[in-house]
Amino acid sequence: MKNPGLAAVLSFFCAGLGQVYNGEIAKGIAFIIAYFISGLLMLVLIGFITTPILWIWGMVDAYRTAERINAGHTE
Description:
- The protein is mainly α.
- It is built from four helices and no strands.
- It has helices spanning 4-13, 17-21, 25-40, 47-71.
């Protein structure tokens, strides 16, 4: 059983960490890399749009994935 709230909180503090907690290592690493690149893009202003989107998407995805895992609907 995975705790959806914990997964979301982990992603709040570090994008991708909630996915790693849920056992989706590759997706978590992809989130971490994308978030890092998005942070670098803040130098050319587009990162101010993409960074919050990735951050929120990571939290929502971690929460929903934990709920799916608990319901037994894993892929």
